[in-house]
Amino acid sequence: MAAKTVVIGGGSGFIGTALSNLLCSCGYDVVIVSRVPGSFRMTWSELEQNGLPKNTAAVVSLAGQNILDMKRRWNSGFEQTVRASRINTTLSLVKAIEKADVKPSVFVSTSGVGYYPPHPSKVYTEHSEGGKGDYFAELCTDWELAAKLPADVGTRQVTIRSGVVLGRRGGMIAQLYLPFFFGMGGPVGSGQQYLPWIHLHDIARLFLYAIEKENVEGVLNGVSPDLITSKEFARAFGGSLWRPALIPLPEFVCNILLGSERARMLTEGQKVTPQRTLELGFEYNYPDIRSACQEFSPLIYTDDLRGDNIER
Ligand SMILES: NC(=O)c1ccc[n+]([C@@H]2O[C@H](COP(=O)([O-])OP(=O)(O)OC[C@H]3O[C@@H](n4cnc5c(N)ncnc54)[C@H](OP(=O)(O)O)[C@@H]3O)[C@@H](O)[C@H]2O)c1
Questions:
Q1: What class, spelled out in words, does domain 5-294 have in CATH?
Q2: Which InterPro entries does the protein's record reference (predicted)?
Q3: In ligand 1, which atom is closest to the CA atom of 66?
Q4: Distance between CA atoms of residues 240 and 245, nearest Å
Q5: Are 115 and 161 in contact (CB under 8 A)?
Q6: Domain ranges of the chain
Q7: pLDDT one-digit tens code per residue, 273-296
């Protein structure tokens, strides 16, 4: 029997690479939808013309322009790119699912914890209200709406609202590694703001869980159950590199580097718990920040890009 195929929009990126490798190690075929042609890939226009490959059992939406790209100024042009790269790609996947003769069993789409407006103490679960109040909350609302399939399609739907993904070779850890390694790292701003986070292996495993478990649907918070502040993160990450992590990154510097609207992602935070994720039986390999950061120690060799070492 042919292996089941999982189609991943934006599967060439940081999370998508880990997920693709995990899926392949579990016997799935993976096809990535990308702006760039290549083997085991299709472009967005090929998706539009030819539809989903035969045997597509699951579709995952992970495309999105990197919001914290320091090389890009935060202006209306970049805001448009951030938005279109998420919403148009998600809409293309939805259209392809609707047009498929044999529908995939599940569509897993991505959103962010930016859905919940920053707050110093309020605890957000998947049932909490959000989705309005600032640019990122509204972006997440529109992103989630774009992923909605009509009920008669019959494909199960899961939306994962991801926290900051921690993995050695990408995202925030890759950007912070050198400053922390040279003892120049520390908390952002006051350090009191909460930082919803999840280890790369766990977010990849959560996508796989959403694909495979038929009882899983609706919104899941893709965050660790360990609620930590920016200061606690800096202490744990610095500790894994044997560095003190005492030098804070002042808020005004973040505002200058990123623009004040975008800088709020770092200088303000939200306390997000994975209530439904836990209720639905997902078990974390990295449930606390110390175990996650230990994995970034220079003494431990892991290969996130190959993803071989992600335990199911
Ligand atoms: N990493 C995190 O900490 C984190 C946290 C919360 C939410 N998320 C969300 O999760 C998704 C995946 O995250 P990631 O860290 O894996 O992202 P990533 O590596 O920055 O990018 C994912 C993929 O998106 C595609 N892409 C980038 N810019 C695009 C554009 N302008 N138009 C169309 N496609 C574009 C690229 O694929 P091609 O170059 O192959 O086209 C890229 O490989 C993103 O939507 C992100 O917002 C990530």
A1: alpha beta
A2: DUF1731, Epimerase_deHydtase, NAD(P)-bd_dom_sf, SDR39U1
A3: 20
A4: 11
A5: yes
A6: 5-294
A7: 999 999 999 999 999 999 999 989
